[in-house]
């Protein structure tokens, strides 16, 4: 028969492991609560995270379509002004004066 003296270390071990588990569980709950509070605080400032983890910043007072249109307009203007000597292949620029709307030059015949 096992004496009560042999069970005391097992009881102490279970109490220590149980106490550590309780503390870890409370930290898990606290971190989840802190995450939700931070998300609510950031949403008030119009900042959020996407499902992929990227940061999404909204602009107050501008709908998404207008914001996207202005952003694309700025990118197109920067692209056009960065390389003014390069002409697009599609021939959409109104400043092109070539007949037929084609920007390609004829190749010399090699026969």
From TrEMBL:
The chain crosses the membrane at residues 6-25. Residues 101-111 have a biased composition (Polar residues). Keywords: Membrane, Transmembrane, Transmembrane helix. Residues 85-111 are annotated as: Disordered. This is Uncharacterized protein. It comes from Friedmanniomyces simplex.
């Amino acid at each position: 028969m096992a004496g009560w003296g042999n069970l005391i270390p097992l009881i102490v071990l279970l109490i220590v492991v149980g106490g550590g588990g309780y503390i870890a569980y409370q930290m898990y709950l606290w971190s989840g609560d802190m995450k939700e509070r931070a998300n609510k605080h950031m949403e008030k400032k119009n900042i959020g995270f996407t499902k992929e983890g990227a940061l999404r910043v909204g602009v107050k007072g501008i709908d998404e379509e207008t914001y996207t249109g202005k952003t694309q307009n700025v990118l197109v203007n920067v692209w056009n002004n960065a390389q003014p000597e390069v002409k697009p292949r599609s021939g959409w620029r109104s400043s092109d004066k070539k007949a037929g709307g084609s920007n390609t030059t004829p190749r010399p015949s090699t026969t």
